[in-house]
Amino acid sequence: MGARGKSRSGILITFEGVEGSGKTTQLRRLATLLRQDGYRVVETREPGGTPVAERIREVLLSTPGKHPATESMTAACEVHLILAARSQHVTHVIEPALQAGSIVLCDRFSDSTFAYQGYGRGLDLAALQEMNRLATGGLEPDLTLLFEIPVATGLARRRKFALEQNRLDHEAHEFHEKVRKGFLALAARAPQRIKKIDGLPHPETVTVGVTSVIQAFLTKARTKRLTTVMHTQRMRPHRRS
Ligand SMILES: Nc1ncnc2c1ncn2[C@@H]1O[C@H](COP(=O)(O)OP(=O)(O)OP(=O)(O)O)[C@@H](O)[C@H]1O
Ligand SMILES: [Mg+2]
């Protein structure tokens, strides 16, 4: 946990994985379940989460030929934009929510930067970590859920459900494969924080995996008195009806 993270009472849980791995779907489902159990929950996403950061997101995700014109984006430009957005997001949304004792569920965060810009684009990981620290002030997630699916499945899901195609959808398969492997390498380096979840089954089955990880985390946090978001009621296991 980073310097800024020490004094706060909330919990930061981040959702990571390749395109179409089910992050947004599972984040929404978990938010509903936690609220039903009496927790105060803030749902947010990266890049984005504040007005300024959402404008940066538009620049980052717009497809070539739409905007900005036909100019390709360099990896350095991309990472600076992402970190600029993160700084706004951490300062104006995440930190205040954590100080207020909320559970913050964030759709992508620092690990995406390391996976996409580090492992995917080949930028130096140590440099990225240093730059990221400047953007986050040292804030790190308490728990990260990594949804694992093959790259082709995720991209096919996005096409099947006709989700708006973005700049990253046009990247080569090998790029996404490097990103997937990057996420796995990050998980291997931080097994306590990053929990892998099989994203292939039916969404309700994936949610069972999510709730079991969350329950274990909350129980441990409660025992260690790591946080004050603790709620008297235990989270009910989510089962298919
Ligand atoms: N377990 C699942 N099985 C089949 N389809 C799924 C599953 N989870 C999500 N989907 C569908 O796949 C699509 C992508 O899911 P979702 O948007 O949750 O993924 P994501 O990881 O947030 O993607 P992105 O990286 O593009 O933001 C959605 O249309 C969603 O309804
Ligand atoms: Mg999503």
How would you describe what is shown here?
The protein is an alpha/beta fold and 241 residues long. Helices cover 51% and strands 12% of the residues. It is built from eight helices and five strands, in the order E-H-E-H-H-E-H-H-E-H-H-E-H. Helix 1 packs across helix 8 and helix 4 (110-120) runs antiparallel to helix 5 (125-136). The termini are far apart. Mean pLDDT is 89; it is low at 1-6 and 232-241. It binds adenosine-5'-triphosphate and magnesium ion.
Tags for this model:
about 240 residues, alpha/beta, five-stranded parallel β-sheet, about 50% helix, globular, binds adenosine-5'-triphosphate, binds magnesium ion
Topology:
Layout: E1 11-17, H1 23-36, E2 41-45, H2 51-61, H3 75-99, E3 103-107, H4 110-120, H5 125-136, E4 143-148, H6 151-160, H7 173-189, E5 194-198, H8 203-224
Parallel strand pairs: 1-3, 1-4, 2-3, 4-5
This protein binds adenosine-5'-triphosphate and magnesium ion.
As a whole number of angstroms, the C-alpha radius of gyration is 17 Å
Counting H and I runs of at least 4 residues, what is the number of helices? Answer: 8
Q: Count the E strands.
A: 5
Q: Give the overall form.
A: globular
Helices and strands, in order, run as EHEHHEHHEHHEH
Cα-to-Cα separation, first versus last residue = 38 Å
| Ligand roster | adenosine-5'-triphosphate, magnesium ion
* Share of residues in strands: 5-15%
Query: Which residues sit in consecutive blocks of at least 5 with pLDDT less than 50?
Result: 1-6, 232-241
Mean pLDDT: 89
Helix content percent band: 40-55%
Main sheet: which strands, in order across?
2-3-1-4-5
Q: What's the main sheet like?
A: 5 strands, parallel
**Computed structural class:** alpha/beta
